[in-house]
Amino acid sequence: MKTNLRKIYSIILLVWGVIAGICTIIFPFVFDPSQSLDAEVNEKAFIFFNIGYITTIIFSVLCGLGIILFALAYLIKAFMYDAKKAIGTLAGIIAVVVVFIIAYIVSPGSDIPVEAFEKVQLDPSYSKLIGSGLIMTYFLLAGVFIALIYAQISKKLK
């Protein structure tokens, strides 16, 4: 019974993803940039766009929830069987949160023009959050490079 449901879920997700991919590919061929966005031709084109866009959002949220749930399940399982390994994992999670907090504090919050937010009808306060995400990415990338350099140097010294 369980394997049958997994097969059904897999088939549904695969078909859904293929339909969304096809709609995303069709959109540029149907969209007419010479017409206004409210033209009947472009309204039909945006149906294809919306299917692809909404599917992308839904799949992204599902993937994010899956990552969080699997991480929590791993953490709980690790605490039950090997507490030292779980403490290392918990320390890594705390380190990422601390890096984000530092990036949020350092972020200027004015790196994106207000006109860009007005164009997409968002509040300019998102600029600080976007900036902190970028700065956090830079910090983590720098950490990866430092770890790679340290690993290569320590390997040469041994």
Brief description of this entry?
This protein is mainly α and 158 residues long.
In words, what does this structure look like?
The chain is mainly α and 158 residues long. α1 runs antiparallel to α2, α2 packs across α3 and α3 packs across α5. Helix content is 84%, strand content 0%. The chain is extended and about 65 Å long. The model has no long low-confidence stretch (mean pLDDT 82). The protein contains five helices and no strands.
For the largest beta-sheet, the strand count, sense and barrel status come to: none
Discrete helix count? 5
* Structural class estimated from helices and strands: mainly alpha
What is the oligomer described by this structure? single chain
- The radius of gyration is 23 Å
Q: Tell me the number of strands.
A: 0
Please tell me the overall pLDDT: 82
> What string gives the helices and strands in order?
HHHHH
The amount of helix comes to over 70%
Shape: extended
**Percent range for β-strand residues:** under 5%
> Span between N and C termini?
55 Å
Low-confidence stretches: none
